[in-house]
From TrEMBL:
Pfam families: MFS_1. It is found in: Membrane. It is a multi-pass membrane protein. Residues 40-482 form the Major facilitator superfamily (MFS) profile domain. Keywords: Membrane, Transmembrane, Transmembrane helix, Transport. It comes from Fomitopsis schrenkii (Brown rot fungus). The keyword Membrane applies. This is Major facilitator superfamily (MFS) profile domain-containing protein.
Length: 486
């Protein structure tokens, strides 16, 4: 029996299908959230987006200096930096996720290791003085940020079907906060000798290492997260706790009114083993969720790389000629917009349904890339107020598209057969995202540089390509329509 949940259903539609008990069944109130543990996980998760995004305001300036590039040509090199992080993430995300489900390890040790070494390699990034060294530190930071799959699984094991629509959007708000705070840190504290001055920062060290201060601040946040992970975070892996909460997939709300006789025994739950990646891939819905996850990551990764590059590039090359501080403020606005949108997400999910919201989020990417073609025109012909209004509009559109990341988490959890396989399933979804992320920064940055350098289609050839890719990605989202919301 399948039921569409993307719109309201009439009683005549349901009457032939549902028994009176199920028709009149009122869903239970959401169970209380484990606030302390979720707060700890949220703070630890904050480390990764801050570590990644604090480099955005100054990365093109740094790359241009180390690679001896200029103007739009910087795009060829900055794309490599973005891809280095994703290559490492791709090579390790599945294994971190699988490691976290093994009985002898669990989630907590994986999170502790990842948090500690993310902070360490962020510090080393700040003292990089050659382009190969820069790539190496980015690669190693990405290697240990692959532990996000374990963090996703912890959240999935702390909540249930009655409160996940609240917890997952809140969890994703953490990334939005990171996207707001990270660029502000990078834009405000980079080059402190010139931006901050004074006896503390007008010194040879800060002139030699102008990007160490934002990295130091980020590493301090990582150290705080490490302390919380070691001393406060509890292990959630069911096999480690002696408890296994296996979700039984039932139509409509039967799983909420099922007789206790149908519940699996404690012995069965304790001996449940995670399914292999090939077994999970044999399920059509898992394949489609992973494909949608990869498509979303490609669009989001491409947008971030090309927006930062466009913001840095001179006006004559189709850019906005913004300073690192201005880029940091723009990305801070983006993160703030994302916070407000994601606070409203539970309302949209309840009102419209998970799949409907997901499809509209994916559809917004085509409009986002198309609108970016207008930014240089506004920057050249309008005033500063008009330029910032246009930039804010594009940032808003991009955040609508990124709301889909929360929904991917829900889809992954809801369509994974048992929590014992949740770590593997999250690892697969992250793997798909990282695979897309390997190619997204390099391809879109190279397309931008090629379009600007050779004035292909007025310098907007990259826009046409990305709008086309967005349309194809929207098709992936449409393939999930046959699967109901829970």
């Amino acid at each position: 029996m399948t039921v569409r949940s993307d719109g309201p259903e009439t009683s005549s539609d349901c009457e032939p299908l549902l028994s009176p008990e199920l028709r009149h069944h009122v869903p239970p109130r959401p169970n209380p959230l484990p606030k302390l543990q979720l707060a700890v996980v949220f703070f630890i998760k904050l480390v990764i987006p801050i570590a990644g995004t604090q480099t955005f305001p100054y990365i093109n300036v740094l790359v241009a200096d180390l690679a001896k590039a200029s103007g739009a040509q910087t795009g060829y090199y900055s794309g490599l930096v973005g891809s280095a992080n994703s290559v490492a993430h791709l090579l390790t995300i599945y294994y971190w996720g699988y490691l976290s489900v093994e009985d002898r390890h669990g989630r907590k040790p994986v999170v502790v290791i990842g948090t500690a070494l993310t902070g360490l390699f962020t510090l080393l990034f700040g003292i990089s003085k050659t382009f190969p060294t820069l790539l190496l530190t980015v690669f190693l930071r990405g290697f240990f940020s692959g532990t996000t799959g374990a963090i996703h699984s912890i959240v999935g094991e702390l909540v249930d079907s009655t409160n996940e629509a609240i917890a997952f959007p809140l969890y994703d708000i953490v990334s939005a906060v990171g996207f707001a705070v990270g660029p502000l840190i990078g834009g405000t504290f980079s080059s402190p000798a010139t931006q901050l001055g004074g006896p503390w920062f007008d010194a040879p060290f800060w002139r030699t290492y102008p990007y160490f201060l934002p990295c130091l601040i980020t590493a301090t946040i990582a150290a705080a997260g490490l302390l919380l992970a070691v001393f406060v975070l509890e292990e959630t892996l069911p096999a480690k706790r002696g408890i296994q909460k296996m979700a039984i997939r039932l139509p409509i709300d039967e799983e909420r009114v099922v007789s206790p006789v149908r519940q699996p025994s404690t012995e069965t739950l304790a001996t449940a083993k995670p399914l292999s990646v090939w077994t999970l891939l044999s399920l059509p819905v898992v394949r489609k969720v992973c494909a949608s996850s990869g498509a979303l990551a490609y669009l989001a990764g491409s947008w971030t790389a090309v927006f930062v590059l466009q913001a840095y590039t001179p006006l004559e090359d189709g850019g906005l000629a913004l300073s690192p501080n201005q880029i940091g403020r723009a990305l801070g606005i983006m993160g703030t917009l994302s916070i407000f949108l994601k606070l409203a997400m539970p309302f949209f999910l309840r009102r419209l349904g998970t799949l409907t919201v997901f499809r509209w989020c994916m559809r917004s990417w085509a409009a986002t890339f198309a609108a970016m073609a207008l930014l240089p025109v506004v920057a050249q012909r309008g005033g500063a107020a008009a330029e910032w209004a246009a930039v804010s509009g594009v940032l808003f559109l991009s955040r609508i598209g990124c709301m889909a990341f929360s929904i991917i988490m829900i889809l992954t959890k809801d369509h994974t057969p048992g929590t014992s396989s949740l770590g593997t399933a999250n690892g697969m979804a992250e793997f798909a995202q990282s695979l897309a992320g390997v190619f997204a920064p390099t391809i879109v940055s190279s397309l931008f540089a090629f379009s600007a350098s050779h004035h292909v289609m007025g310098g907007y050839f990259w826009v046409i390509i990305m709008v086309s890719v967005s349309a194809v990605s929207g098709w992936f989202a449409e393939q999930l329509r046959k699967y109901r919301d829970d």
